[in-house]
Known about the structure:
Elements: E1 10-13, E2 16-21, H1 22-28, H2 35-40, E3 47-54, E4 60-62, H3 66-75, E5 88-92, E6 96-102, H4 105-114, H5 116-122, H6 124-136, H7 140-155, H8 159-175, H9 184-193, E7 206-211, E8 216-219, E9 225-237, E10 243-246, H10 254-260, E11 276-277, E12 284-287, E13 295-301, E14 307-310, E15 317-323, E16 326-328, E17 337-339, E18 344-347, E19 353-357, E20 362-368
Antiparallel strand pairs: 1-2, 3-9, 4-10, 5-8, 5-9, 6-7, 6-9, 11-12, 12-13, 13-20, 14-19, 15-18, 15-20, 16-17, 16-19
Helix pairs in contact: 4-6, 5-8, 6-7, 7-10, 8-9
GO molecular function: mannose-6-phosphate isomerase activity; zinc ion binding
Family: Belongs to the mannose-6-phosphate isomerase type 1 family.
Active site: 244
Amino acid sequence: MGTHKKGPSMISDGGKENQMTLEEWIKDKPCALGEGVLKRFDGLLPFLFKVLSVNKGLSIQAHPTKELAARLHREKPENYPDDNHKPEMAIALTDFEGLCGFRPYDEVATYLETIPELETVVGMEESSSFISACKASNDEHVRKSFFKRCFTSLMTRDTNIVKESLSALVGRLSKNTNSSADLKDLLLRLNSQFPGDVGCFCIYFMNHIILKPLQAMFLAPNLPHAYLDGDCIECMACSDNTVRAGLTPKFRDVKTLCDMLDYSPGSREDNMFKCERDPSCPYSEVYNPPVPDFAVRKILVPCKEISYMLRPLNGPSIIIIIEGKGHFEKSDFNKQIAISAGTTVFCSASHSLIINKENTKLFMFQAYCEVNSQ
């Protein structure tokens, strides 16, 4: 949902598509973005809104900063097609499984000490140095330096050594039917999806997170992550810049990924992003990440309310209905718009939307961008 050229939203007038993209419509009505967004983002809608259903692991990846994105676009435009950053946020609709951020160093050191196949593929010297640093040093800079060496060694290891080590580990875990080894089921599942792939070993370096519905994670630049399973609402800056290095048949840029990553450790909880109550909008909570490109509001209107007004914003928004029925009272076509699960509506800056709903709850998300015009 948005103006991305690979999947542009089309404008529909009263249920009839009129072959105009949302991007064309905004160009014809630039005031729809609001003065602040219009100036800040050069007349472009700054976010892309998605509903994502994952039934197979998606790549070990990270997104570049704006500065790195510009350089990658200059040097490798065939792989990095624009010069924008791509911070993104996932809000779970079902139990949603992923990898996000690096584990606390002591956890990784324990895995290296207890999983010989992992120690082999990382390298004996690199593993030993990192384990010693974890035990002997409280200097975070020293630990981080050795940790980066371990992860880089893993990701750049000869593919034959990776396949042999992974095959040995899978074989050992599979034979031990009574084993309750940590991450066993995840490793076997990922290897079945991507046999012999180095990304399977990343589960011992990265936090394994399962979000409950409406929990979220924010993926800042340089943060390693991978989506593994489940349904989510996703919002991001409008960009295609993804640096991949595992669990993918797509282009891998291992050196760039290893050089750019934030190697700071964190817990599962550290990598979960909390929403806050929105006092300006009844029945709502907002996921407001530390970027200007987007925020997402979750709105759950109870059955008792027959009418609900979405207040005007100083920037554009896109609304998706998850559950409920009714109609929008006002629109840019001056017609009622019937709504049900899956309906998506673009709302211009400074416009309010009044919803007349049936006697059921109404559940929706609103992605938006607000920028002061000063």
